[in-house]
Amino acid sequence: MRLSSVYLAVALALSPLGRAHAAGGGAVVARLDVSGQKDRADVVIKGSFVQPTYSIRELGDGKRVIIEVPGASLDGEHLNVRGSAALIVRTTASTSAKGVRIVLALTRKATYRARTSKGRIHVHFETDTQLAREEGEARGLARVRHVSLERRDGRERVVVELDGKPRFRVVPGEVGPARLELMGVRLAGSVPREIAGDSESVVRNVLISQRGDRVRLEAARAKGASATAIREGNRIVWLFAEGVQRRPEASRTRTVAREEAVEVDGEEVAAFLSDMPMQLGAARGKRRFTGRKIDLDFKDADIHNILRLLSEVGNVNIVTADDVSGQVTIKMKSVPWDQALDVILTAKGFGMVRRGNLLRVAPLAVLEKEREMAIARQKQRIELAPLETRLIPVSYATAQALSERVKELLSERGSVSVDERTNVLLVRDVANSLDDAEELVRSLDSQTPQVLIEARIVEASTSFSNEFGIQWGGSTVFSSATGNPTGLLFPSDVAIAGGAADAQQPTSGLSPFSPTVPTPNFVVNLPAPVGTGVGGAVGMSLGSLAGNFNLALRLSAFETTGQVRIISSPRILTLDNFSATIQQGTSIPYSQVSAQGVQTAFQEATLKLEVTPHVTSDGAVSMEVSIQRDEPDFNQTSARGDPTILKRNADTSLLVQDGHTAVIGGIYSRNTGRGMEQVPFFGDIPIIGILFKKRSHRDARSELLIFLTPRIVNRAESLSR
Description:
Elements lengths: L2 H12 L12 E10 L3 E8 L7 E5 L4 E7 L1 E3 L5 E3 L5 E8 L3 E8 L4 E7 L2 E7 L2 H10 L3 E11 L2 E8 L5 E4 L6 E6 L1 E3 L6 E3 L6 E9 L2 E8 L4 E7 L2 E7 L51 E10 H12 L2 E4 L6 E10 H12 L1 E6 L2 E6 H21 L3 E6 L5 H9 L7 E5 L4 E6 L1 H14 L5 E29 L15 E4 L24 E5 L9 E8 L5 E20 L2 E5 L4 E15 L2 E19 L4 E18 L5 E15 L4 E17 L14 E20 L2 H4 L3
Parallel strand pairs: 1-5, 1-6, 11-15, 22-25
Antiparallel strand pairs: 1-2, 2-10, 3-4, 4-8, 7-8, 9-10, 11-12, 12-20, 13-14, 14-18, 16-17, 17-18, 19-20, 21-23, 24-25, 26-28, 27-28, 29-30, 29-31, 29-33, 29-34, 29-40, 32-33, 35-36, 36-37, 37-38, 39-40
């Protein structure tokens, strides 16, 4: 709890307001007014009470503040909340036999101050750390003068030098960075905010930060390393020891149970000790001994003297029970003192229990009996504790689904029911179990991430083709009718003409007097495609005056160039772990012939996006994606004129950061071809052979790229769990 909350509690205890609980009977909380800016917020609880009685406390990491108004009730089923503030993300209220309980969820930790007036409770939240630092200096807080990272006696340690003796605590936990908090202190200007270590050592680096009137040290440590803090005068020594390798933990874990601070004073501490009899917990795993190695050689020595010797060597306090007695004969060389202690106690049937740096030695039977009695007392305390009823509203999840999880945290006397109309859990149990159940619901009842998936299918194609063709032919006549006989009896008349008389081929340009020539008499008929809007040709005709000799020549050429770019961009919004599909397309009819006759069927040609996203704990999006793009191709048809279907599919699984774009696939193709048609033999003659050839060239390229971009729409709300 911050100093501001401590001062508040003291002020309430000393003021008449803190003793006016009797006046609060029958009070009604009417509404909650919220206002403020980014780093501050004001909360006003309005009701029908004259002198309100209340209490304020924090939960977890300080981002949740609970305001309790004893003896009050809500005006209606839900609390009327007006206004908003960026610092406060969620407000919930519930009633119990004790009164009204209001929970405020903050975006980050903040100091708070409270005051009362007639019918109102005012709470002001502030996150200005500079202001807190100045107030700390004015109150004369202790100062952190120097922080260093060193290695001594085979162990790594962080030494914090102060000009006072403030309180401190080590936040427990084996996963993530180790944390040491110093209360009522401020950092000197010369203290660095980060101390780098060795990547191969136990402590990798240390981050130092000022949070109000507290200083937090966060040490990135090797996996499984343990940390213990001790006080040496005006110094705090934070000791680190390598731990046993464990199975990897989940990427993000959260604990509902309350954390207890660990604070130990003394020059040294036996970090290997546990809070339960050592011999009872030995079966759980192989123990490690890290004490200083010593040599022991005793015969029939009193066990009390042996324990006193080990207490001096290990720098710990040992207290023995009255029924601990006996003699020990032992000879050891280079053995850790903690292992020697464990072996001696095991040989004599004794056990030990740690409380800080204090060891209590007693027979195992006594310790086991005490443990059983403690369990029985705890069970009896739960059985005799009064039962309370608490209403826990559920916002985003369903109360029925969370009720199964809540049952696991309740005691044997506890029960939970669901009001489906208001989506509220009605939990009845002892106070501690109710707090755990409410914390579990608040942790699980968060917004489900919504993911907007945008796909872009980009198609680009280019095509080029050209053809060059030639047509020529002619005729010559030797006869008496034209006045140029051959002069021979046989043959007296001779006529020679081209033999390719294809009426389907265009003949424009071969005759200056007619657009078409009925009988062109081609010798070479290899034209390029020429027609309306297609290609071009030029013709030339030569002939004698009497028409005895005629020659017609026609050159044709055709060239096409095309560029096509198609962009398809389907988008769809869905919840985390829910499959979504969006599609658009056409149904193409075609005929089917069967025994029942001719029937019309339809073929789908659609653009379809199907995706199942999953948002990871670090804000990335894992997706199962299926993209399909089909379209009809009327350039390639069947014998009945039905178009073919061009298919493009992509099925994949991938992991993409929020807002980033990934290219999940692409296809590039190129088709090229060159063709030549010619008259045999004549086409192979150099230079002259071009009069007997037709040439063609085709080049087609196409490229398909598929892009995918996921965006978490409600990232701030859903990932702040």
